[in-house]
């Protein structure tokens, strides 16, 4: 089975994993106590005062994404001078590292900073803030931020990079906690339904890999698309790849592929088009695609390349392979030469397959010219 098959259907889960099924701490909950070992920057805060807004952000010295969001929080602290920002270091392997880290950050970390209250014989997971905030909110990753309103209520929870709009509304009194809490409940319900559907699909995918009979999987994919209309395009892409793996369903695959190519969500998305084309020409594919599908792959790859104005190395790599698989060797070589140029200074440059394919295409082109040359 092509490696893109599983990836295509799992994309359907993106965006739903942030929230857990059941949270004890969420929008509208009373904020837990502020229990820290000490403040190492800024004046100490003993608790949440009536009428004041607070941002409690969780981070760690070893967390790269946390370091990236720190300057943004500093900017917000300067913008919202009446809001108290507190960065709480949690899950540290060694809390002695925090002082040095904060000192090195200097003015980039210009708000209050505290260290979690960890028992002497405990580790980072045992900290009071980690246990009483992160755990009941079902947050398993950092950075994470909580906004506490003037009534001591959790008004918002999320990634610090997404805090700007809700914080502005909370400060101005335009934030409707009940409405936002309802949205979260609906999101959790949607996630629960999504996970149930994905669980069933994953089982059918495994069965399909064993039996090569796509009947039940295709039926379930159609049902899933009706249940999850927002994710129908990704599911349709997966369905296309399932159909393209069987000679008996080549015509069905082509019909669905034509629909995807003309659709707005897939047909105008160069990365989605690239995934479709690559699934058909991937060298690691279990079996070579039908010639009609290879012709379709070339059409799709050309459109993706045009949408990217011929400047995307990965898409050009797919196009070159599509040319090669369709016997257009000269175009395969010139396109792959473009790939090598575009790859310079990018992660694609480290892919040994890029130059390997260029050598392969050149060798085949030379062999083709030699066979066509008139015999003396």
What is the gist of this entry?
The protein is an alpha/beta fold. It has helices spanning 3-10, 64-79, 96-105, 128-134, 164-172, 177-211, 215-227, 232-243, 250-262, 264-267, 270-281, 291-307, 313-325, 329-343, 352-372; strands at 36-41, 54-59, 84-89, 112-116, 144-148, 154-158. It contains 15 helices and six strands.
Written overview of the protein:
It contains 15 helices and six strands. The protein has helices at 3-10, 64-79, 96-105, 128-134, 164-172, 177-211, 215-227, 232-243, 250-262, 264-267, 270-281, 291-307, 313-325, 329-343, 352-372; strands at 36-41, 54-59, 84-89, 112-116, 144-148, 154-158. Strand 3, helix 3 and strand 4 (112-116) form a beta-alpha-beta unit. Helix 12 runs antiparallel to helix 13 (313-325) and helix 13 (313-325) packs antiparallel against helix 14. Residues 1-22 have low confidence and may be disordered.
Give the fraction of residues assigned to helices: 40-55%
CATH architecture classification of the largest domain: 3-Layer(aba) Sandwich
Order of helices and strands: HEEHEHEHEEHHHHHHHHHHH
Please provide the count of β strands: 6
Q: Would you give the CATH topology of the largest domain?
A: Glutaredoxin
Count of domains: 2
Low-pLDDT windows of residues: 1-22
What is the top-level CATH class of the largest domain?
A: Alpha Beta
Report the sheet with the most strands, covering strand number, pairing sense and barrel closure: 6 strands, mixed
Span between termini: 48 Å
Shape: elongated
Strand share of the residues? 5-15%
Strand order of the largest sheet: 1-4-3-2-5-6
> What is the mean predicted local confidence, pLDDT?
89
Structural class: alpha/beta
Count of separate DSSP helical elements? 15
Overall radius of gyration: 27 Å
| CATH fourth-tier homologous superfamily of the largest domain | Glutaredoxin
């Amino acid at each position: 089975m092509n490696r893109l098959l599983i990836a295509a259907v799992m994309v359907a889960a993106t965006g739903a994993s942030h929230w857990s099924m059941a949270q004890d701490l969420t929008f509208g909950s009373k904020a837990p106590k502020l229990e820290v070992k000490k403040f190492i920057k800024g004046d100490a805060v003993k608790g949440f005062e009536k009428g004041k807004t607070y941002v409690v952000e969780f981070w760690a010295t070893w967390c790269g994404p946390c370091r990236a969001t720190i300057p943004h929080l500093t900017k917000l602290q300067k913008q919202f001078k009446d809001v108290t920002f507190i960065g709480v270091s949690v899950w540290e392997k060694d809390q002695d590292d925090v002082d040095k880290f904060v000192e090195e950050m200097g003015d980039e970390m210009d708000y209050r900073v505290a260290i979690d209250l960890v028992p002497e014989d405990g580790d980072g997971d045992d900290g009071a803030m980690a246990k009483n905030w992160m755990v009941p909110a079902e947050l398993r990753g950092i950075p994470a931020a909580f906004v506490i309103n003037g009534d001591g209520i959790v008004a918002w929870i999320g990634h610090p990079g997404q805090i700007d709009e809700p914080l502005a509304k909370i400060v101005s009194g335009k934030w409707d906690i009940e409405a936002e809490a309802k949205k979260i409940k609906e999101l959790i319900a949607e996630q629960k339904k999504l996970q149930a559907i994905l669980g069933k699909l994953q089982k059918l995918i495994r069965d399909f890999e064993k039996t090569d009979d796509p009947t039940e999987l295709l039926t379930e994919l159609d049902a899933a698309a009706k249940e999850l209309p927002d994710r129908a395009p990704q599911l349709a892409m997966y369905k296309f790849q399932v159909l393209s793996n069987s000679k008996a369903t080549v015509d069905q695959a082509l019909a669905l592929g034509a629909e995807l190519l003309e659709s707005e969500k897939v047909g105008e998305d160069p990365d989605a088009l690239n995934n479709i084309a690559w699934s058909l020409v991937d060298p690691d594919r279990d079996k070579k695609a039908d010639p009609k599908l290879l012709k379709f792959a070339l059409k799709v790859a050309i459109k993706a390349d045009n949408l990217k104005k011929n400047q995307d190395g990965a898409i050009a790599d797919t196009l070159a392979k599509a040319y090669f698989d369709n016997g257009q060797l000269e175009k395969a070589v010139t396109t792959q030469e473009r790939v090598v140029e575009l790859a310079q200074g990018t992660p694609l440059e480290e892919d040994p397959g890029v130059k390997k394919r260029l050598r392969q295409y050149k060798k085949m082109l030379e062999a083709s010219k030699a066979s066509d040359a008139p015999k003396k």
